[in-house]
Design goal:
With 713 residues, the chain is of the alpha/beta class. It is built from 23 helices and 19 strands. Strands 2, 3, 4, 5, 8, 9, 12, 13 and 14 form a nine-stranded mixed β-sheet that branches. A four-stranded antiparallel β-sheet has the order 16-17-18-19, covered by helices on one side. A two-stranded antiparallel ribbon has the order 1-15.
Length: 713
């Protein structure tokens, strides 16, 4: 093979053996870690039955028995006899069956059909991994081919050549264990770039299981290399090396020519190999974007999708107070506002009866800071790259108007209260750009430890990496509200909760209800954390009741994004655009809201700023907003859009009951009919053409980029 003698082929195999072993181990561990549905997981007994019911495994067992017989009693026979004997045995079994049934067919066989389907699935699952190791082997063989014969034996240290890649596969496994997602180039760049708070967040997730996963591919790879070196010392070790080596270049060519089959989206995402994906993102990223030339041209010629340089006017003399509460990681389906199970939010249920519930409220992206921008600026924030660039431009040259900035011109005092720190990526800069008069948030010392002060202190619990439980804000809220009442100023108060965030730790004294329908202990904790937030909201509204402000205060309560528990593979909320991470609760209550009403139609976080304007009698005279007031009816044909968190991962749209997910070519576009398939289990993309929608999503994506990065006048 490639002009190498068997010894050279063996050296190439030895060289790439650690990468082969580590790569295949990583994929198998991912499959075993995966829980495909929230309602059920892979149990050991079920996994055992699944494996041993495999038609492919039955074929393999037959071939192994045939090979054992050949080696034991027919050593002079060629290995080629093994598959011949296996095929003859299969035909003989079919013949015996034909004698009993009177029907003889070889091609129309359930076991062959089943095995073919299984092999197609395995091909999809391991294609990228096999492509990686085949490429590595061919590269190693070429390198050894051009070495002088005396240098063709790789030195002992060559076992460590792939150590960085194996460690990266280990980090990818640890990341997958927490999130159900494969590593992405942007995640890696954030970690390597030292974005504020990112390294600390990653370090807070380390435990012994994560450390074991980080080291597992490297440990297994080195062990395999050691075993091969011991085998290589035996005289007959190289006898089959030449034939074995042919598998790699032939397999490499086959993998390039034969495309993977289309399978369900649940499985397709497992076909990725993180190293292959990162290489493709790094090398081919610009080429992938080159296919969007038409979409860019359309976006450039179209009017701006929004313009955040707002100008307003108002003739209304009386000023209502506005309290906006953004709920951390609360999905609509986990509240009793939208589902009979579970009974987690009795206070929100009551508040909805006194005000209005938004029937279908959506986040713009599964990221908290993206929700802030959509709610407070009324614009689409784009993906993480766009949001970073927009924030940097705003810091240098502030142009965008926000709710705090607009309301200040009408005499309002504004405050933003968070029980968390802002030392994560660009959160602190974003909050500064919003222009709040007062901000209360947790501060960290240079070592990243929380600083105790008059607000953030025991007996309140520090519940996660981000900060404290939500009740830590109750007394500061009361004091701030009293101060505004004393100065006779209307106010706009925004509050962010925290307890709903992973790892869903319920503070001391919080609810500890066993929910019979909860599929896992973690999900039960999540439901109890929502119950805690519901109790906190009851205490929060009580402050305004005690201060006599309910008749003049509008409450807007909305989720920042939802949360996933493996319904489609991923967990938490990053890197996806399914209903569980996008559909959130939405409630309005107070003067100007019809009690007991339901706000129908597709609504989104960008609709909140226009709603506040309408409630306060403010008219937009300049700029352009993409959202519509929640108090006005919307067209049934309205199409709303969603961004993934990271660049070139996912963008989506919903129109009517149809949901479209565009995956940037990583796997095929997905289409769901939510009226009959609310869980997004039945992908209709193979039945419906979506070329026009795909172009529309690309144009929208580029239009958001254009609006966010428009140069100053």
């Amino acid at each position: 093979m490639l002009g190498l003698p068997p010894s050279g082929v063996a050296r190439a195999i030895h060289l790439v053996a650690p990468l082969i072993a580590g790569t295949l181990l990583a994929k198998v561990v991912k499959v075993l870690l995966w829980r495909p549905l929230l309602q059920s997981g892979i149990q050991p007994s079920a996994l055992f039955r699944l494996v041993f019911a495999s038609a492919t495994l039955k074929f393999v067992i037959v071939l192994l028995i045939a090979e054992f017989v050949r080696r034991r009693w027919f050593r002079t026979w060629s290995f080629a006899w093994t598959p011949i004997i296996g095929a003859a045995g299969f035909v003989g079994a079919k013949a015996i069956w034909a004698l009993r049934t009177g029907v003889f067919t070889v091609t129309d066989s359930l076991i062959i059909t089943t095995a073919t389907a299984e092999l197609s699935f395995l091909y999809l699952l391991f294609r990228a991994d096999l492509l990686l190791v085949s490429t590595a082997f061919v590269a190693a063989a070429v390198a050894i081919r051009w070495l002088p014969p005396q240098d063709r034996r790789p030195p002992a240290w060559s076992a460590w050549i792939f150590a960085p890649l194996l460690l990266f596969l280990g980090f990818d496994l640890a990341y997958f264990r927490k999130t159900g997602l494969g590593g992405q180039l942007e995640v890696l760049s954030l970690l390597l770039g030292g974005a504020p708070g990112t390294v600390g967040l990653a370090a807070s997730e380390l435990d012994w299981q994560s450390i074991a996963l980080v080291l597992a591919p490297l440990a297994v790879g080195l062990a395999v290399r050691f075993i091969l070196l011991r085998i290589d010392s035996k005289p007959r070790a190289l006898a089959g090396a030449g034939t074995t080596g042919l598998v790699f270049p032939i397999g490499f060519a086959f993998l390039l020519v034969v495309p993977p089959p289309r399978l369900l989206p649940d499985y397709v995402r497992f076909g990725d190999n993180t190293l292959v994906s990162l290489t493709a993102d790094f090398v081919l990223g610009s080429l992938r974007g080159g296919g969007w030339a038409h979409a860019r041209q359309v976006a450039e010629k179209s009017p701006p999708i929004f313009d955040a340089r707002l100008e307003t006017e108002s003739s209304q003399s009386s000023r209502r107070n506005v309290v906006l509460v953004m709920l951390e990681s609360i999905k609509a389906a986990a509240t009793s506002l939208y589902a009979p199970f579970p009974s987690t939010t009795p206070f929100l249920d009551q508040l909805a009866r006194e005000g209005a519930v938004v029937d279908e409220m959506y986040a713009v992206a599964p990221r908290t800071s993206a929700g802030w921008v959509a709610i407070l600026n009324g614009i689409y924030p784009g993906n993480s790259d766009m949001l970073f660039l927009w924030e940097a431009n705003e810091t240098k040259n502030p142009r965008s108007q926000s709710l705090p900035k607009v309301l200040r011109s009408y005499g309002y005092r504004s405050g933003f209260f968070l029980p968390t720190h802002l030392v994560l990526q660009n959160d602190e800069a974003l909050v500064k750009n919003f222009g709040f008069d007062d901000v209360i948030s947790l501060r960290l010392d240079p070592e990243g430890q929380p600083i105790a002060d008059s607000v953030f202190r025991p007996p309140f619990d520090y519940v996660n990496y981000f900060g404290y439980e939500d009740r830590v804000l109750l007394e500061p809220t009361r004091a701030w509200v009293r101060q505004q009442v004393a100065t006779a100023r209307p106010f706009f108060l925004a509050i962010m909760t925290n307890v709903g965030h992973y790892p869903y730790k319920v503070p001391k004294g919080g609810p500890n209800t066993p929910f019979p329908g909860a599929p896992t202990a973690e999900y039960n904790d999540y439901l109890n954390s929502i119950g805690y937030i519901d109790e906190y909201l009851k205490d929060l509204v009580a402050i305004f009741r005690q201060e006599g402000l309910l008749d003049n205060t509008v409450f807007i309560i909305v989720g920042d994004h939802g949360e996933s528990f493996g319904e489609h593979g991923p967990r938490q909320h990053m890197g996806q655009a399914y209903e569980e991470v996008l559909r959130v609760p939405g409630i309005l209550a107070g003067p100007g809201i019809v009690p007991g009403s339901k706000i129908l139609g597709l609504r989104q976080q960008i609709d909140i700023l226009p709603t506040v304007f309408e409630l306060l009698g403010i008219t937009l005279t300049g700029g352009k907003l993409p959202g519509l007031s929640l108090l006005a009816p919307v067209d049934s044909a309205r199409r709303i859009y969603f961004n993934g968190v990271y660049d070139a991962t996912t963008i989506a749209a919903r129109q009517g009951s149809t949901k479209f997910l565009y995956n940037f070519g990583r796997w095929p576009m997905e289409i769901y009919d939510l009226s009959s398939d609310p869980g997004e289990r039945n992908d209709l993309a193979h039945k419906r053409r979506a070329g026009a929608v795909e172009l529309d999503l690309q144009v929208w994506h580029e239009s958001v980029r254009k609006a966010l990065t428009a140069p100053p006048d």
